[in-house]
Specification:
homodimer, alpha+beta, BirA Bifunctional Protein, domain 2, Rossmann fold, Translation Initiation Factor IF3, 3 domains, five-stranded mixed beta sheet, 27 strands, 28% strand, globular
Chain lengths: 492, 492
């Protein structure tokens, strides 16, 4: 276990970096900007994957796998998409290394093994997938195609941070093909909704669903739906996006279908994705100065049992009770770890599991055996109580629900307190400076205003909320008329 | 659905390629040697993943994720490993594309975005992982490390075939670190054993467990355990390998631990993997001239129900019964697809599900409604019978077990018939030419003999079986003394 974390109010960014490493979630690797996701961090990611994968399948999607590489000629086919990603893509140019003639212990790129056409390591897979769909789609009978892929992607970012922005990251990308605009739009909305429900009900993170402004849209999309969450430092985080791609990719790759009426028409598309960035959202929404705080639905271990003992004999007695309790809890569907390692002291274990955000800790000592009790400690509130062993299963089951709800409510309260309606630009700047968070303000709908506000304040339009009431007003910057408030914030 | 498949005895290789594409398992992509794994093929791979992942976790392994890229300086650190993979690795040299000044619609590699150090796309991850383990291991308390990774890897093969040999493939790679040689060896054996059990009990593929000869070992391993299966054309297929890596990587990356006695010692290592190549083994073990044959434990749909009807009203009546049966079967843990699409005729559906290897097909027509029966067709034996609807659940449950067993027994019989003991080189060549399969023969243990036999016959030593009786004899080629028979075969 590492040292005490830097406190959030001293240096939020440092706190985050220390927490990620010390809680064994991830670390930087020898490859610039690429991370190693450690077993504990990966176990949380697996929980996210399992839940999302089930939701995708329930809504008729199937998984498939497409190549890691995109030939340059395909990559450049959809112009806006290519332009958007060209600046940050890793390019394979050779397919062989050979021994360095000047130093036999070294390898060099073999100049004779140059590829005829360079291969881009996928930053996203629209190009390779739509080139494939071309061969799959002839008639309306072949539609819709509802496919998802779990994969790694690479975007050569210059400034990286564990989970939040890494050169390689893991994600899922859905790519669907439809016979009509309406169906594709409904799909894009549906998937954004699935993301929102997942974040709120599973990760206990409240989100705002909305549309991106034109300048924040995915390169190649006609409309980008998104979910935006608010972190504890008042900055927003884009947690997932779902794009209505119109017929852009179908046109770039010439994908047409024969309709029921026998007409040849271009196919309509969506794509949607969430990534390991969600780990960053998770950490920055719930955690505290003692470390990670996990909602029970995402915790690899929901309960950890720690024995407090002196000597082998006492450990055996305690273990008997601990194993019985663990068995009862598992029977009730709770995941339990019994940590009876003799290499570490109870105090060390307490601190470690606090750091790693295990929702409940049960400690059992010799006095507990006498009294038939255990000490139950709750990670989110840092409170403790003694509970009769006979009541532990019911108690723990109840707390799993209660903790999940409490975390969501706490995050929701934070967001409510940090969402401010403003009507003047002075107020806008002032709120941004003093408390941060979401700023709900009128905007005239122009890129010029958006750009100017960004230049002056670093705040961007996070989204045009889907559920906001229409309300006539004046743009907070230009004073021109506006029909709806949008959400501004500084963002990750 | 495609055309009739080429028959196996006419052109086995063509049959295989046609089957993979027509059964919707995979197809070639726009990227040389890289495949697209289609949803049906991927669903089978997911079944394999789920079962293997559970077995890994039961034996104490955890999943993690390491970078896709290996900096050249790390790649070359373990000399033999580097030498083994240098000839076939994709190399990233640049991190940006830019608009072609001569044609604004094209992109070119930006010469100003050349990486200081080239990055190898991982062909296997020992180098990047052992460089990471260096930071994780200080004392015996940090050991063992038992980690698995599900990932894509790239090996630039010149001759590729769907699933069997592709430039990019999906796999899992286990990488473990231990305090003693004995523990590492036991781990390598254990994992090979898990692979063997998985192939036999889940994929219904009999395998021989053995050791690789020195020349067939993994580059950088001290000992390679393997499982070898026999395909229907008499060629062997290496289905999985588990390597005892000794201290080679610990030495290359300077990974030492302080023992209980306080001595600094190099760590012992294993690595082990199976890949999407298993899809090829699956296809070539069980399938026939009508298409894929799937063991029930791997079938995405174990039962398909096809209604035989004229008109909407009849379909509704049949659907009522079909949905009831489907619900009962699902209740009993059977995965069922009810295909009531009106876009395809029953005959087309029958052929399609035969091609895709669905173990059982249930057809329900108007006469079945009268009589309370269904027609039950078995994919592996191509037999049909009428079964009372009231008996269908018991019948299907029984057949799931029976089909799984039958497929295994059939493959085992084939292997027994195609494993031949030979004692002269004439016989060796003759058997290889006339019936193929495994040849059990004495070998003098030298690379010279092994190489010579390979040159003359194209047969290689598939393995030195773990369970063979020691038996004194004379090398089938050199006549020199030998203490054990080994298995030769032509191989994929």
């Amino acid at each position: 276990m590492g040292n005490k974390l830097t406190e959030r109010n001293k240096d939020y960014s440092k706190w985050y970096n220390e927490l990620v490493v010390q809680a064994d979630l991830a670390e930087n690797s020898a490859v610039r900007g690429c991370m190693v996701i450690k077993p504990y961090g990966y176990a949380i990611w697996e929980k996210m994957q399992a839940e999302l994968d089930a939701k995708f399948k329930e809504t008729g999607h199937q998984n498939a796998y497409f190549p890691l590489f995109v030939p340059k000629s395909l990559f450049e086919a959809e112009e806006k998409n290519a332009e958007g990603f060209a600046k940050e893509c890793a390019v394979v140019t050779h397919y062989r290394l050979k021994t360095d003639p000047e130093d036999k212990s070294k390898l060099i790129v073999d100049p004779e093994a140059k590829l005829e056409e360079e291969l881009v390591v996928r930053p996203t897979s629209e190009a390779i997938i739509w080139n494939t769909y071309k061969g799959w789609i002839q008639s309306y009978r072949d539609l819709p195609i509802l496919i998802n892929q779990w994969a790694n992607v690479v975007r050569w970012e210059m400034r990286t941070r564990l989970f939040l922005r890494t050169a390689e990251f893991l994600w899922q990308e859905g790519h669907t093909a439809h016979a009509s605009k309406g169906e594709a739009l409904a799909e894009a909305k549906q998937m954004n909704n699935i993301y929102a429900n997942f974040l709120e009900n599973f990760m206990a993170i409240p989100v705002v669903q909305g549309l991106k402004s034109e300048s924040e849209r995915f390169a190649g999309a006609e409309e980008t739906f998104c979910i935006e969450a608010l972190m504890q430092d008042g900055k927003a985080l884009q947690a997932g996006t779902s794009h209505f791609l119109g017929q852009n990719f179908a046109k770039a790759f010439d994908v047409k279908y024969a309709s029921k009426e026998g007409k040849l028409e271009h196919v309509w598309a969506t794509s949607w994705g969430v990534s390991t960035r969600l780990m960053g959202a998770l950490i920055m929404t719930h955690s505290d100065d003692k470390g990670l705080v996990l909602p029970p639905k995402l915790a690899p271990h929901q309960v950890v049992i720690v024995p407090i003992y002196k000597g082998e004999e006492q450990l055996m007695e305690i273990s008997e009770t601990a194993n019985e309790l663990a068995a009862e809890l598992r029977e009730a569907g709770i995941s339990v770890k019994y940590d009876n390692r003799d290499t570490h002291k109870p105090g060390w274990k307490f601190a470690q599991y606090e750091l790693q955000g295990v929702p409940l800790r049960i400690a059992i000592g010799p006095k507990d055996l006498e009294k038939g009790t255990v000490e139950l400690a709750r990670r989110d509130t840092l409170t403790k109580e003694f509970v009769n062993q006979s009541e532990i299963v019911g108690k723990v089951k109840g707390l799993m629900v209660e903790i999940q709800d409490t975390l969501f409510q706490k995050a929701l309260d934070y967001r409510s307190e940090h969402t401010t309606k403003v009507d003047t630009f002075e107020e806008f700047k002032n709120v941004l400076k003093t408390k941060g968070g979401f700023i709900s303000a009128h905007w005239d709908g122009t890129i010029e205003t958006e750009t100017k506000i960004k230049e002056l304040t670093k705040a961007t339009i996070r989204c045009i909320p889907l559920e906001a009431d229409k309300e006539d007003g004046k743009c907070v910057f230009s004073g021109n008329p506006s029909s709806q408030r949008v959400l501004f914030a500084k963002a990750y």
